[in-house]
Amino acid sequence: MRDAFINALNTQKITAEWVNDLSENLTNVYTPGYREKKFTFKTFLDGSIANTHLRNVGQGKSSPGTSDENIYLEGKGFFVLRNDKGRIVYTRLGEFKFDGEGVYRSPDGQAVQGYILNDKGEIMNGAKPVDADSFLDTAFDGGAASVPTTNIKMWIDPSNGKYLGKYEEFEFKDDGILYGKADGGKIKTPLYKVAIINFHNPQMLYQVTDGQFIETEESGRPVVGRGEVRGGLIELSNVDFDANTAYYQQAQMQLELANQLIKSHKQLLENAIELMSS
Questions:
Q1: What average pLDDT values come out for the chain (278 residues) when binned by 10 residues?
Q2: CA nearest 212: which of 22, 34, 27, 29?
Q3: 263 and 222 in one domain?
Q4: Single residue among 202, 218, 235 that ends a domain in this structure
Q5: What is the phi/psi pair of residue 72, to 5°?
Q6: Which residues are bridge partners to 170 per DSSP?
Q7: 153 phi and psi, to 5 degrees?
Q8: Dist CA 162 CA 182 (whole Å)
Q9: Which of 8, 90, 99, 187 would bridge 261 by S-S if both were Cys, CB 3.0 to 4.6 A apart?
Q10: Are residues 198 and 255 in the same domain?
Q11: pTM over 0.70
Q12: How far apart are CA 218 and CA 203, in angstroms?
C-alpha cells in the first residue's frame, strides 16, 4: 500500500534537488562554456527519485573572446587539455592563449592538445602521414588512430621576432587547422590541427571543475569529434533561460505542495496521538 506521507517526503527531497540544479543553471546563464544541467525523474512505489543529473551537450552561442587566440567549436565534440602530470580533461571553452614560451594553454595552465601537420595538411605520426580515413576510425587516450596528441607551440624567435622563426602571424581556420602566415599572408603553411574529441554518450561525462570533464564508463571511450573551429571567439553558456525559468516556477509550486502535504499529515498524526492518549 502506498503511503501518502512517504510520497510527500520523497517528493520534497527530489524537488529540492531539482530547484538546486535549476538555480545553478540560471546563475550561469552568462558563464562562458557552462553546460546546462538536465534533471530527469523515474518513479517507484513510494514516489519519485532522480534518474540522473545529465549535462546538455548542445551548442552554445558564440561571442567575441578576450583574444584573437581564443577558439570556438561549432559542432559536436570537445577540446582536449593535458596538465603537467599527463592528465586529460575535455572542455568546450576555448579561452586559450599562447604563454611566454609559446605553448597554447587554457587559463588554468593546461596545454591544449593537437596533431602535428606536414606542409600538405596531413596529420603526422612520427615521420609518416596518417591516412585520413584511418584517422577518423577511432580515438584513444586523446589521440586518433593511435596518433598521440602533442602540445601546440608557437614560440617567437628573439632574433627576428617571428613565430617559429618563420611566420609573421598565425590563423585558426577550417576544421581546427593552425596556419603560420608569412610574406604578408602570401605564404600560408598548416602547422597543427587542434584535437577535437567526442563520445558516444557525452551527457555522461563527469565534470571535475567548471567546464572541464573526464570520461566515464557510461560516456564510453573517446572518438573523433567533428566541427568547424573559428578563431577569436568563445562559446557562451547553453542554458535555455526561458525554459529554466518556467521549470523553476513549476518546481517551487511542487515543493510548496509537498511541504503542505507533509504539514497536513503531521497535524493528522498529532491529532490521532491526542485521541489515543485521551
A1: 67 84 90 84 52 76 92 93 93 95 96 94 85 66 68 94 93 89 91 92 88 91 86 92 90 83 71 69
A2: 34
A3: no
A4: 235
A5: -125, 130
A6: 180
A7: -125, 135
A8: 9
A9: 8
A10: no
A11: yes
A12: 9
Split into its structural domains, the chain has a count of 2
Q: Which three cell numbers stand for residue 97?
A: 592563449
Q: Facing residues of 239 across strands?
A: none
Residues 114 and 17 in one domain: no
pLDDT number for residue 45? 43
Name the grid cell of 234: 568563445
Judge if 154 and 175 occupy the same domain.
yes
Mark whether 166 and 249 lie in a shared domain: no
Q: Which domain holds residue 147?
A: 62-235
Predicted pLDDT of residue 1: 38
Same domain, 188 and 209: yes
* Residue type, position 72, single letter: Y
Cell 593511435 belongs to residue: 146
Sequence letter at residue 198: N
Q: Do residue 81 and residue 94 come from a single domain?
A: yes
Considering the domain architecture, whether residues 99 and 181 belong to the same structural domain is answered as yes
